[in-house]
Here is the input.
Amino acid sequence: MLLALASPWLMDYALAAWHRQKPLSSRQLQTHSPDSLRLLRQVCRQQGWQLPELRLIADPAPLCFSYGWLPRNTRIVISQGILDQCSGDALTALYTYELARMVNGSLPVLSAVGLLLLLLHRSYQWLAQVGDGLTQPLIRNLLGVLASLVYGLFWLLRQLVLWLSRLGGSWGDRRSVALSQHPDQLAEGLLRFSAAIAADLQQRGTLHPLHSSLEVLMPVSSRQAITPGSLLVKTPEHRTELLTALVATEGLNPYRQWLRVNVSHLPLGERLIWLHQQALGRGQPGLEINAPSLTSVGQVSLPLLFRQKGPLAGLMVGGGLAMGLWFLGGIVNWLGWQRLSWLYQDPSILTGGLWLGLGLGLLLRINMLFPDRQTPSSDRNTVADLLHHTPLLPVQGQPVTLRGTLRGQPGIGNWGCQDLYLDDPSGLVKLVNPVPLGSLQGWLQHQNHPLRWVGRQVTVTGWGRHGSGMHWVDIHQIQIDPRHRFITYGPIWATLISLGSSLIGIVTIFSGG
Here is the structure.
């Protein structure tokens, strides 16, 4: 509670010290966008609020977020990059979105958690930077391990508030449309913000630190914006085809309700199709999409959905069977059949059943997760192919071979490949190491690790995936030449983990309680 109350002032100090945040006067905003200032004053007057404090971060990166716990002590922050790149209508829409988030109840909690996320992410970066400056391997590796642990804490805390960020963002879209009556402007603002994030990543080589640490406070998820935003920047002549594909695969995906657990915002395509419908209902121009092609992309297949949720389904089946055996043990105990009465309330049955169910759930989906490539590996794909020919579920791995420039953070802070991207002529896509505890590979394989090849041309083979509005490639191999390659062995690790879980379950059941 104390942290939530003090978070606006603590965040002020942290952002001023680390990111050059300063006040933004009404006169400055009036110069760039008179409509934005007029809307701010109008809404605050209608709601009986004081005008929130306006802040500016002197950075070319696109930044827009707010923090605080009451309208009178809320800060709305934008960057110089937003002022320079966004039109007046888009800037007005982003300010309206931030005003809408002030009243939905999620901002006080997200502000307090955002402060902790900012501190953890900054600590992780500092440890990595100090370690990169050292030459003594022992201390350098120790700092690398500490940085990975701090990043793990950051990731865990972020996971805990993703649901609230999604809920706040959904409310923000609806409240913003109610305040401005211009859903078309909000849709354009979200698209411009996404394109600006991708352009900044391409120029900077990595995501801006605030895009990672304060993603839950931003109007658009930086991870969701990378691929569609880069395609908007690099191929603006295909804008209609891009938006149509984005809306169809994300807004009309029959599985979209099942894929929201690990994201901070609703998929961009899902938000855009809702705003498009709201704009048409108000007689405003909607998105530039090919409406006749917006048909359902498929129906829900229960076997496929069970493959996607394999670990969870396995836990439920294993737990259900264990409870059934408990029930059977209770019956035979009541009947006096002593040979089977041990089943009744034996904790090893439940524990072992859960482990066994988890292992089998993981094992049954490995072939679909990591399918073999049916065409020669010399047939290269592009990032644009990942959007236009994307499967409905992440479990449906799509073998791909991509060639482009490796982007990301160099140094020990990227041991786990958590900040790694491929930039090809058509767009950007995030690269993911599918191995649990992938940071160990950065420690043990530092001579042939991708962090040493940032900025160079590489060939990536792996499995393209799409889900929750994000596009990514699970890495199988990154190769710079025939002698230098990085292999993750993802299918082997997945098989070992599933077999290990199953073995633990079997041993637990037979060892008895």
User: Anything to note?
Assistant: The mean pLDDT is 89. The beta strands are 21-23, 53-57, 64-67, 75-79, 398-408, 420-424, 427-432, 457-467, 470-481, 484-487. Residues 46 and 188 are 26 Å apart (CA to CA).
